[in-house]
Design brief:
Blueprint: E1 2-7, H1 15-29, E2 33-38, H2 64-73, H3 79-90, E3 93-99, H4 107-116, E4 139-144, H5 161-169
Parallel strand pairs: 1-2, 1-3, 3-4
């Protein structure tokens, strides 16, 4: 098996970084190969913008989905996106390691989703969740919160973990808060 860990924390000495290392060491100890996409260390640009597209469909107006679809069809996607898609396609397991910041994923990870899940390529309106490109590939979200598990129960002060995680991992029926 080949695992991809998408690591989204800027501090190499963070708890998230330690968890990434434990996951890597554990998987490798079981005989699996592992690739880490360290978004901060690799300086992944999370901001979608016209400059990423050298063969624009329209130079008059930048429509993200149109440009992504065109670049996918003409094999002119940005190099960093091509690299990340190749890593995903090779993976038999994907682990997302990140902290929950301000009720959501870090901006760099949100931008990674926006840029890598290319419209018309690996993502369309009909290719989502259980009908998506990566259906059947186990995915783990290893999330740190900095708060106790009860903070993420329904009607709690931090918000229901099911609602917070829904945008990236629906359906939320398997979420389990284990505390910080």
């Amino acid at each position: 098996m080949h695992a991809l860990i998408v690591h989204s924390h800027p501090e190499p000495a963070s708890f998230n970084s330690a968890l990434t290392e434990v996951a890597k060491d554990t998987l490798m100890g079981l005989g699996h190969s592992v690739k880490i996409s360290d978004l901060y260390a690799e300086r992944f640009d999370p901001v979608e913008k016209p400059e990423h597209y050298r063969n624009r469909k329209s130079t008059d107006f930048f429509a993200t989905t149109n440009e992504q679809r065109h670049a996918s069809e003409t094999c002119t996607l940005p190099e960093d996106v091509v690299r990340e898609i190749a890593r995903l396609k090779r993976a038999n397991l994907v682990v997302f390691q990140f902290p929950l910041w301000n009720h959501g994923v870090p901006a760099i990870l949100k931008g990674w989703f926006d840029r890598v899940f290319v419209s018309g390529g690996i993502h369309t309106s009909g290719m989502r969740h259980d009908r998506g490109f990566f259906r059947g590939i186990p995915t783990i979200c290893s999330v740190t919160t900095g708060a106790e598990a009860t903070a993420f129960e329904p009607y709690s002060y931090a918000g229901d973990i099911n609602g917070l995680m829904y945008p990236i991992a629906s359906p939320p029926k398997t979420w389990r808060a284990n505390g910080s």
